[in-house]
Each structure stands twice: as C-alpha cells, then as structure tokens.
Design brief:
heterotrimer, A mainly alpha, B alpha+beta, C mainly alpha, A: mainly alpha, flat, C: mainly alpha, MetI-like fold, 72% helix
C-alpha cells in the first residue's frame, strides 16, 4: 500500500510538470498582457519599458526556466493586473470557492442519496419514473441556464434568497444547488442502478426467501453502494470543479477562483492563470488518489496496482 | 424513514430561506441616507489611486480622492482641488489651489502635495498603471503654498483634461507608511473614507464629514461587482442594490415601467465606428469610393431607432458635439442605396468576400450583424467574425486584423485629440489609418494656443477625415443607469463614472 | 431491436426525439419558414404566436435582430448535431486507439500513454478549450477537434479498463498462442467485445458535447457570430431571460429535450445490450 502511494505520488509530479508546460506555453501563444495593462494611447516606448519590466522580452524557454526556478523557491510570481503576489491573490479567493464546493457536495448528498435509494426501491413504478426524469433533466440543463432560472424563481419572484453575493448562509443556497445539480442527478442515477444490480444478486434473493425483510437488506447494502457512488461523483465533480465554478461564480457574483480565472484569462494575467491551473490539477490528482485508495478499502476486490478505475 | 428524511431536508432548506428575511435598515427621518449600494459589471483593479486604469477603478477611487481638475457631467473641464488654472506660456500651465482642504487623516493639502503626487506618478520604477498617461509632463514647480506650475514636454491643449485622474495623495502619510501600506489603506480628500475592500465582493466606505465641498447625504456606501447582467438586474429588483449600470437596451422598457425604479439613459463620450484596415495590402480597401459606398449603405438612423431604441446619436464623423471642431457644418453620410451601388461600381468591386471582426462578448454584436446585413444588401459579401478580445487588439496593432473591424473609443479623457490620435493616428496601436498629413494637422490643432485658430484646425481635421472615410462612421453611444426611485438628484455622467455626492432621498 | 423499442415507451420517445432532430438538421432549408439570418429589425423581440402580442409570421417569436426563432432553432440543430456527432466520433477513435494500445501492450507503453492521459485529465478542460479556441479562432471545426480530443482522452481510460478485462479471457490467450498477430487480435477479438460499452458511452458523450457547446458560447467562445446554434441562442438570450423569457426558454428546451433524448436512448441501449451493466 505504502509503496503504491509513493509510486502514485511520483507519477503525480510528472503529471503536474506536464500540466505546467502546457499552460505556460499555450498561454503565451494566446496573447500579450501589455495590451490590457497599458491605456490605448500608450507610446511604443512605454510598451518596450513594460515588456522589459515584465520579463517578456526574453525567449519563451528562458522565461520558463526562470519560472520553474522561482516555483521551487516557493515563488509563484506576481500578478500583472493586481500587482501583488499570486499566492495572495489566490488565497484570498480560495475560501469562497471551497465553501461553495463543499455545500454543493452536501446538496448532492442530501438530495442524491435518498432519491437514488427511493428510486431503486420503487423501480418500475410511477414514482421511480418521476425521480429519474428529474434526475435526467438535472443532467441535461446547461448550468448557466439553470442558475438564471433559479434566480428568477427563488430570488426575484419568491424573494426567498438573495440574488448574488456572499455573507450569510442564505447566499450559499442557490449557487450550491446550481453547482450541485449535475452531481446530484448523477448520484441518483448511479445509486439507482447499482442498488438494482445488488437487489438482483442471488444472495439477496436467497436472503429474502429466508424471510429477512427487504427493507433491512436494502439498508445494509445501500450504505456500501452509497459510498461507492459518492466516491465516483466526487471524482467527477473534482474534474469539473473549475468549469462549474467559472460559470456559477459568474452568474452569482461569487468572489472565488472561477471568476478570478475568467478575468485573469481576459487580462492575460499569466502568473495567476498558471498558479490556478497547477492548484486545480493538484487537487484533481490528490482527490483521485484518495478515491482510488478508498475504493480499494471498501471493495477489496479492486486491485490497486492494476491501474485505476474512476 | 426515507420520506421523513426528505421532508426534513426540504423544510430545512425552506427555513433557511425564510428565517433571516431582514428588510432594509429603517431609515431615519432626516435627509441622511443610511446606506447605499451600487453595482457595476467588473471589480476595481486596485484601490491604489495610481493603478486604476479602467472606468470602474476610476469610479471606486473617485469616491475617496480628488484631482486638480474634474469634468462636469457633460464633459467640460473644471477646477476641483485647483480653484482655477490657466496657460501662461506654450509649455506651462498654472494652477491656483484651494485652501483649507485636509485629507481624511487631517494632513493638509497644498503645493507640496501636488508636486509629490505628480512626481510619484512619473516615477516609472513604481510601475503604476496610469503612469504612461502622464509622461507628457516634464516637471512641477512650486510657486507659492497654493500655486503650482505644471510644465509639459510639448505644447498640449489637453493638459487640464488629462489631469482629472491624477489623484492628489497624502505625502506625509505615504512617506511614513510606505507605498504598500497606502495601496491597502488609501487616504484621500474625497467625500468618502475607505473602510474595507474584499476582492470581487465589495468595497465599503463611510462618509468623511469634513469634505471640502460639504458633507454628502450617504453615510455608508458600498460598491459591488456583479458580472452577469441578469443577476445585476435581479439584485436591483429585489432591493439588494440601489443603482446599477450597463443595462442592455432591451431591458430598459420593462424597467421603465417598474414603479420603484428610475431609468436614466444618457449620451456618453464613446464613439463607435467600423474601421477599414487601411494597413492591409488591399486595393479595394484603399479605394475611397468603396469606403464611401459602405458608408452610404449603412442606415445608421434605422439602427439607432430600431436596435438601440433611440439610445444613440448620429455623428458626422468621429467628433462628438462637445469636442473641438465638431461645428464644421457637415452632415453624416445619408442612407442612400442607389449612391452606394454607384460608388461600389466605380470602385470595381468584384465579389471579393470580406470579414468584419468584433471582439467576443461585445454587446454591440447585434449592431454589427445588422450593419453586415445592410452591406450585403448592396451586394458586398461580408461575414461577421468574433475574435477573442486581447487577440483582436493585437491584430489591430499588428495591422493583420480583418478588412473591417468594430471599435469604440470613449472614457473620461475622450476629446478631438484623443479620438483622432488613438483611433486614426499613425503608429498608434489601435489605429490602422496611417496618414502623415492628418497627423500634422492633429498636432498643430492640439498645440495651437489661440483658441479660435485651434478650433478652425480641428474643423479642418473633421472635414478631411469625413472625406477620406477611413471608417464606417456609426454613432455616439448612450449608456443607462437604473436607480431605485427612493433616491433623487442623481446625475449620470458622459464619462460613465458614478459620482454620488449630490444624491438625495426622494420624499 | 425495433420491436423492443416500440414496446418500451421511454425508448420510443427518445428515438422519436432523435429522429425529429436529425430531420431538422438534414432538411432545415425546407422545414424552416425563413432563412435563419433574415433580419427584420422593425419586428424584433416578438413573443410566440400564442401570446397576445404574438405575430403569426413568427411562430416562436423573434430575436434581438428580428430573426425568426423557430427557423434559428431548426437550423441550430445542425451545428449542435455536427459538433456532438463528429466530436464523439473523433473521441471514439482517439479513445479506442490509445485505450486499446495501452491496455493490450501494458508495460512501458501503457505507463507513458497513461501519464499523457493523466496530464490532459488533470488540466482543467474548459481552460484548454478556451486557449485553443482563442488561438485558432472560433469555428465549428476547432470546437470538434478540442472537444473530441479531450473526451477521447477521457474515454481512453475506460476503454483501457475494458480491454484489460477482455484480455484476461482464455480465448485471447489461445488466439495468441496459435500465432495471430497483435493488431489482428485487437481488431478482430478485443474491439468486438467492447463494442457494446463503446456504443453506450458514445451516446452519453454526444449529450455532453451539446452541453459543452452551450458552455463555450456562454463564455463567448462558441461558433462564428452569424451561425445559429442552440448554445449561442441561449447564451445571447440570457440577458433577456426576465423581459423576454421565451427567447431563452426555446433554445434551452431544445437543448434539454435533445440531451434528454440521447441520454434515454443511451440508457435503453445499455439495458438492451446488458441489463446488468453498471453505469460508469
């Protein structure tokens, strides 16, 4: 086990380096921050001064070398736009995104698990179909559309929640639901199908025939299935973390990483985008490692060394 | 069990929703406004006054700071911390300063402050965002405690206008605490004192009772960035904010009908046009008849009437009515399909297909699509392409942009000089019209000390640019602010800054 | 199979939706009442015909430039389908090639390929899409390439797992021992065994790609300006969602119903091939 984790961690370093290379070079191919930083009337001379000050006059490879060297010294660079250290810029916004992600996950669990189990128990009945249709619709709606519909109904029409911003628990509700909608729907579907599979297994049939109540059996097996489903959804949610928060944070004016990244791309704030990408990639790598380990604990038949199943 | 749990979950969520439905803090009987919140689409870049280059940053900073000059809502330059100013020779502008003005911490404002502020701005090693706007200044001389001379490198009629964003900053406070501390704890002479800045969330201010123009009505002011337009409108309608900007024209009708809202539409300093890429090696684009043909083909009046619902103003070429040189007596190109087709034939157009570029996520996309449709009407093949904003600007700068591109220039400094230099000057990054005769005319007009002669030169410039037609001239843009009707006496500004010094409660 | 579909109401519904969308896409010119680019700016933002202010010439109303919403939705199906169909096809090719090679050969090849796959997966996909489309310009082709590539890499892992699973079967080893070459084994014996899984995944990916196109449009990086697509119609109408909700509701419904149709069909296919197959 320890050997396995060490090996995976080493592999992760390679992966992160690869991610860094891609983001560093594609960013620089996609435009120059000078146009954003200087007012339209700035002279050529000023453009040159700025290019030199930002170190953009050096070759790409040299810039990458300097960047790598600084990273190993714990320096992720300075934001061109905010004119302060990138780590500060990011850590100021990180709590908001973490809050949002945690609550959307909570929403996923509160809605997804009971609905999934319920749907499996009522399999084939009208109520099963209703739950499944809702779950499917949840998966099929574009996120920004769902967010705007929620704002109009629950914030503007019913005035139950604020339309935007942060500050209280009430502010969290609508953005969390929007962000969690897709994962909640996925949880319902996953849980339903894995429950059905378990219910059709021979040993369950035998147990039922022995007179054990179906409900008891369901609850016993529901737990294991629920955890597996949650792990899978967690993996999916982490992969879509940034994409989701970019849109949800924009719609709800949530001061987090997603919005920062949208703005930083628009401003070609290289250092910020690079650091965010590294951060997200690290989270992805770590969570997936954890998910794989937990999988193997819950389900010993999954052999870790045989590559990971997501 | 399961059902109970589900019901419980729903009840929980419902309770969260209802529990703390606090109403606006009750307001006292006086004219005081306890709290006021305004929302713009983007966050400020900084609260360090020398780093805010966007209009939003300028708005956030203007609540706390003053400069020597300020423009009126209509765009006329007036003294602010300067009582008066005059040009005493080709290169020198003299400013008489207000007396008895104090910063929020009590520090006195005087000639030393001006010299310090200007020199701090000109220090390129500090990398301030606004510095490049002020490199036309050579030096500052203190004449006496309340008189300073600002000396420019070249003769520049636009000096007082340019100074509106050079905020006066407290010398002793900064020297004592350092630039970094100041950048997070700014202190100015303005109507509001800084309280708190949470990035992408809010800037909070409280009233400065000793403001030199008299204390304002708002006690606590909050600025919020809300990027999505629909969310901004929703926040206004639900009473979370009191004033919003950047509302698209299609929303105005509905908002105008709402009883608790007031819609203010007003002309801005923003000039919209579709530039011809004259740096491109294309005989067609170089052909004056072709460029004029397209100008005759576009029905700007119809666009303003139908798409913009009257929220726009035709302009003869590129100068607005309050710019120097506007009154040259020319009329905008008329909508004349026959004439357009005639000129098109003269130009020898042979079915070549053209690209019309616009930056992605620009609200004028429908206008540009309508223009393309009108150009197609006279038989020119044109396709609209959206380009990512930064790449679009780079392509304009490199001269590799599409044959036609939508652009607009505005902001607080906009003037005949700025418009003609940035949009249509040689070797300017956002210009594709390189013409040395026109450059000379511009420089002459801007440095001429005699006002009448200067005006005449600007009129010549306007006439010439109209004739050369390096662009399809569109219109002066309007903007809208929507305000809660609980307040009155708010004046929107052409430069799109939000100033709340005069706002009052509506009785 | 057809009899099965007709028997199952959900499957029937999904197939009918898909047939309708395909018909729209193929015969858009004949079905749509107007050209999707015809502007009538004097009659912009009309509500649908059943609204009291509706106009019978614009059945589903008109947009900001007075273009017919119905015609744009009918034509919009084209881009949505092309992106999802070709994107998925490309994804399947990339995913199958990488997954099959990696799973079959194992060892160093597997390790290198899987690290490359990990890099792409760890890279936030939406950013990759933004960069590539910002650099190469927004076009249907570029969106297909980006989407197909990223989903393909994702599929590679799943397919690799399936290949590993099949490889353990005795008959593969038997084939190997009688001297069949690797390529032959992969194509003739392994791929047919994972075809069912591929088909199911493909339908689900098609649904995701339609959603992706709308997300890119939201961020302003969709297809060229005048090409109507559902995602772009929805993104453009989002400022109108309070004042002219129909403009946002119709393309939203078009996306939701089509994605629902594809998903339901995928679910049904999975049950059809293997009732016990667990959702990935």
């Amino acid at each position: 086990m320890f050997h396995y984790i060490l090996k995976r961690l080493l592999q992760s370093l390679i992966v992160l380096l690869g991610v860094l290379v891609i983001v560093f070079f594609t960013l620089r191919l996609s435009g120059n921050p000078i146009d954003v930083l200087l007012p339209p009337g700035a002279s050529e001379e000023m453009v040159e001064i700025y290019t030199e000050q930002l170190g953009l006059d050096k070759s790409l490879v040299a810039q990458f070398g300097i960047y790598l060297k600084n990273i190993f010294q714990g320096d992720f660079g300075t934001s061109y736009y905010y004119k302060e250290a990138v780590t500060g810029v990011i850590f100021e916004r990180l709590p908001a995104t973490i809050q949002l992600t945690l609550f959307s996950f909570l929403f996923t669990l509160i809605i997804g698990i009971p609905a999934g189990v319920y749907s499996a128990l009522k399999s084939g009945k009208a109520s099963d179909y209703i739950v499944r249709i809702f779950a499917l619709i949840g998966q099929c709606m574009p996120v920004f559309w769902a967010g705007l519909l929620l704002i109009i109904v629950f914030a503007v029409q019913l005035n139950l929640f604020p339309t935007q911003g942060t500050g209280s628990f009430r502010h969290l509700v609508l953005p969390s639901i929007t962000l969690g909608l897709y994962s909640a729907a996925t949880t319902v579907r996953l849980l339903r199908s894995s429950m059905l599979e378990v219910l059709s297994k021979d040993y369950i049939q035998v147990a039922t025939s022995k007179g054990l109540s179906k409900r008891k059996i369901v609850w016993k097996h529901a737990f294991k299935n629920a955890v597996t489903a949650i792990l899978t959804v967690l993996g999916i949610q982490v992969a879509g973390l940034l994409a989701g928060s970019m849109i949800v944070e924009t719609v709800f004016s949530w001061p987090g990483i997603g919005r920062l990244v949208v703005q930083s791309i628009n401003n070609r704030d290289f250092a910020v985008v690079q650091a965010v990408v590294i951060l997200i990639a690290s989270i992805y790598v770590v969570i997936n490692l954890l998910v794989d380990i937990l999988y193997s604990i819950i389900n010993p038949r999954v052999r870790l060394m045989k590559g990971s199943s997501k | 069990m399961l059902k109970k749990f589900l019901i419980f979950a729903f009840v929980c969520m419902f309770l969260i929703g209802c529990s703390s439905n606090e109403s606006d803090a009750e307001k006292t009987g006086s004219d005081e406004i306890e709290s006021f919140t305004f929302a713009l689409p983007i966050d400020t870049q900084a609260i360090e006054p020398f780093n805010g280059t966007s209009t939003t940053s300028a708005t956030v900073i203007y609540q706390m700071f003053n400069a020597l000059t300020r423009t009126s809502p209509e765009g006329e330059v007036q003294g602010d911390l300067a009582e008066s100013f005059e040009r005493i020779d080709e290169l020198t502008w003299q400013f008489k300063l207000r007396e008895n003005v104090a910063f929020h911490n009590g520090e006195e404002f005087n000639a030393e402050t001006v010299k310090y502020s200007v020199e701090r701005m000109l220090d390129t090693s500090k990398q301030f965002g606004l510095t490049s706007d002020y490199l036309f200044i050579d030096s500052v001389e203190i004449v006496d405690d309340y008189t300073v001379n600002i000396i420019t490198k070249e003769p520049n009629n636009g000096t007082p206008l340019s100074l509106i964003y050079l905020s006066m900053v407290p010398k002793e406070y900064i020297e004592e605490n350092g630039d970094e501390y100041f950048a997070e704890n700014p202190i100015g002479t303005g109507p509001f004192k800084f309280q708190e800045y949470a990035k992408d969330a809010h800037v909070k201010y409280e009233r400065y009772d000793d403001y030199f123009k008299g204390k304002v009505n708002i006690k606590e002011l909050t600025f919020k960035p809300i990027p999505e337009e629909s969310s901004r409108i929703a926040a206004l309608e639900s009473g979370e904010v009191d004033l919003i900007t950047d509302v698209s024209i299609n929303q105005l009708n509905r908002l105008e009908q709402a009883e608790n809202l007031v819609v203010e539409s007003f002309p801005t300093t923003r000039v919209s046009y579709i530039g011809f890429n004259m740096r491109k090696d294309s005989e067609l684009i170089q052909n004056e008849s072709f460029r004029k043909a397209l100008n005759y083909a576009v029905n700007v009046d119809s666009i303003i009437e139908n798409l913009l619902e009257g929220n726009g103003e035709t302009i003869p070429a590129i100068f607005l009515s309050h710019f120097n040189g506007y009154n040259s007596g020319i009329e905008p190109y008329a909508y004349d399909v026959e004439k357009a087709k005639e000129l098109l034939e003269e130009s020898g157009y042979d079915g070549e297909s053209l690209e019309l570029a616009i930056a992605a996520n620009t609200k004028q996309l429908p206008v540009v699509e309508a223009v393309a449709d009108m150009i197609r009407e006279i038989g020119v093949n044109v396709e609209v392409v959206q380009k990512e904003n930064v790449l679009m600007r780079e392509e304009v700068a490199a001269g590799t942009i599409s044959d036609l591109y939508f652009f607009n220039i505005g902001g607080a400094y906009n003037s005949s000089e700025l418009m003609s230099r940035i949009g249509f000057g040689s070797v300017q990054r956002y210009s594709t019209f390189f013409n040395s005769e026109m450059d000379e005319l511009r420089v002459a007009a801007n440095s001429e000390m005699d006002e009448e002669k200067s005006e005449q030169l600007w009129q010549d410039y306007q006439n010439n640019i109209y004739d050369i037609a390096p662009a399809i001239f569109l219109y002066q843009e309007y903007a809208s602010n929507v305000l809660s009707s609980a307040y009155t006496n708010y004046t929107p500004r052409g430069d799109e800054l939000i100033l709340l010094e005069d706002i009052e409660k509506n009785e | 199979m057809i009899r099965q579909i007709v028997k199952n109401k959900v499957a029937l519904f999904s197939v009918l939706v898909l047939i309708l969308v395909v018909l729209f896409a193929v015969f858009a010119e004949f079905i749509a009442p107007y050209s999707p680019e015809d502007q009538h700016i004097e009659s912009k933002l009309l509500p649908p015909v059943w609204d009291e202010n509706g106009n019978s010439s614009f059945i589903l109303g008109s947009d900001e430039l007075g273009r017919d919403v119905l015609s744009r939705i009918i034509h919009g199906s084209r881009v949505s389908l092309i992106v999802s169909l070709f994107g998925t096809l490309l994804a399947l090719i990339i995913g199958t090639v990488i997954g099959a090679i990696s799973g079959y050969y194992g060892g160093k090849v597997d390790a290198i390929l899987m690290r490359l796959v990990d890099i792409v997966l760890a890279f936030p996909f939406i950013l990759l899409a933004i960069f590539v489309i910002a650099i190469t310009g927004p076009s249907v082709f570029n969106i297909i390439i980006v989407a197909g590539f990223a989903t393909g890499v994702n599929l590679a892992r799943v397919i690799r797992g399936e290949v590993l699973h099949v490889k353990e079967n005795d008959f593969i080893e038997a084939t190997h021992s009688i001297g069949a070459n690797n390529f032959r084994i992969i194509v003739l014996h392994i791929l047919p065994n994972i075809a069912n899984v591929l088909i199911v995944i493909a339908t689900l990916e098609m649904a995701n790609l339609i959603l992706l196109e709308s997300a890119l449009s939201f961020l302003g990086l969709g297809v060229p300006a005048e090409v109507p697509t559902w995602g772009k119609m929805l993104a453009e109408a989002r400022t109108l969602i309070i004042s002219n909700p129909w403009n946002a509701i119709f393309p939203g419904l078009a996306i939701t119903i089509t994605v629902l149709g594809i998903n339901l069909f995928g679910d049904w296919l999975r049950d059809y091939f293997d009732p016990k197959y667990v959702e990935k």
